[in-house]
Design brief:
The protein contains seven helices and 16 strands. The protein is an alpha+beta fold. It has two domains: 142 residues, Fructose-1,6-Bisphosphatase, Chain A, domain 1, CATH 3.30.540; 107 residues, D-Maltodextrin-Binding Protein, domain 2 (3-Layer(aba) Sandwich). It has a seven-stranded mixed β-sheet with strand order 3-4-5-6-7-8-9, sandwiched between helices. A five-stranded mixed β-sheet has the order 11-10-12-16-14, with helices on both faces. Strands 1-2 form a two-stranded antiparallel ribbon. The mean pLDDT is 94.
Length: 266
């Protein structure tokens, strides 16, 4: 089977799995939940684990040659030997989910040789499913989407408040947007074109980013470090420095501005 056909097949499989996972998560949303705190002080709830287990059951596993990396599964170093693996955030934006806010998502990608080739980000509350296949474009609910592009004037930008304040101080070209708690969904909104640019602070992980990365690039945008480096996934330490996403032309201007102002290095 040609590589493009294989990637499309996996995107279809992802879409079915994340939709089913979204139904499961919605069934527990705004209901009493068991909640606890992980070692890194971030919250986790029973819905995170239930969605994680469903996705792991629905997607091809080790017996078929696929590795696995998820926020809610103990990391297995054997994944480093996998040419292909699933990278999953069962509920991206757990704090929003627990708090009854709508901006959480289910994010999953298939990565091959360090880069995503199939991706799905599903926002169940709004019934929005973002899908991308390498070389085939990005879609929202079956319709093709494209990142906005152009000059910096009027740029609608989202991200951590500290970054936004330092960028927009005495600069009227930028319009700060409300924070989107799910990082995958924040970048998906860039791919959709309703946010022009978005930041992620340092310490984001593969599972926050892999699916959204492919969405942004297939929608004609770029998602990189502040110094313009593309991301490689499935490394020994799946953590990344601060990131910026935008349409390609705007991204280049914005990255240059970030370097000039020395907002943050990395």
């Amino acid at each position: 089977m040609p590589a493009a056909d294989a990637a499309t097949r996996y995107t279809d499989r992802l879409a079915a799995a994340v939709r089913e996972a979204g139904e499961l998560a919605l069934g527990k949303f705004r209901a009493p939940l068991k909640i606890w705190t992980k070692a890194n002080a971030s919250p986790v709830c029973e819905a995170d684990i239930a969605v994680n287990d469903l996705l792991r059951d629905r997607l091809p596993g080790a017996a078929e040659g696929f590795g696995w990396l998820s926020e809610e599964t103990e990391d297995d170093p054997q994944r480093l030997q996998s040419r292909r693996l699933w990278i999953v955030d069962p509920i991206d934006g757990t704090r929003a989910y627990i708090g009854g806010q709508p901006d959480w998502s289910i994010s999953a990608a298939l990565v091959e040789n360090g880069r995503p080739i199939a991706a799905a980000v599903f926002a169940p509350v709004d019934n929005e499913i973002f899908l991308a296949t390498a070389g085939e474009g990005a879609m929202l609910n079956g319709n093709r989407i494209a990142a906005s592009d152009g000059a910096l004037e009027g740029t609608r930008i989202a991200g951590p408040g500290g970054y936004l304040r330092r960028l927009t101080e005495n600069d009227e070209r930028f319009i700060a947007q409300s924070k989107v708690h799910s990082l995958a969904l924040r970048f998906a909104r860039v791919a959709q074109g309703i946010i022009d640019a978005a930041f992620a602070s340092g310490n984001s992980h593969d599972w926050d980013l892999a699916a959204a990365d492919l969405l942004v690039h297939e929608a004609g945008g770029a998602l990189t470090t502040f110094t313009g480096q593309s991301l490689i996934y499935n490394g020994a330490n799946p953590v990344h420095p601060p990131l910026v996403a935008a349409g390609r032309g705007r991204h280049a201007e914005l990255a240059n501005l970030l370097r000039k102002r020395r907002i943050i290095s990395g």
